[in-house]
Here is the input.
Amino acid sequence: MITTSQPKSLSVLEKTVRRLQQEVAELRARLDAVTATAADDMSPPEHSKDARAWAKRHGLDLDEFVPFQPPAVGTYTMSVAEAARELGLSVEQVRRHLRTGHLRGMALGGRAGWRVSRADLARFRETREALSAGRAQSTGGDD
Here is the structure.
């Protein structure tokens, strides 16, 4: 009885192995096709006629030319809330300093609010620290 069931189970296993081998071959072929397509997509883009003319006029090689990428928003400026956090003030106090001109910033208009330069914030902080240090000296605050 064991001998008769062995050939049947062996043939079923052989069929399963052949089917799996065929699936693996198909998957490898698909992977090779996708990899080849991705490699083709990685080739440098063709430049337009206008871009080539511009590069020739300016004596540039477009393959070596790297266009200017502006820095991310927030690199040089910050919002009112960020400025308030940096200064240890409330948001309304920072807005008041912006409106009076003690702290320089750019009003964006409407609900967009203000943007504050990091350099202007540093100047404002130094001015405030100098004023508070002067007050402390005039009142003898370090007793």
Q: What stands out?
A: The chain has a mean pLDDT of 83. The first helix runs from residue 2 to 41. Helices lie at 2-41, 49-58, 80-87, 91-100, 118-138.
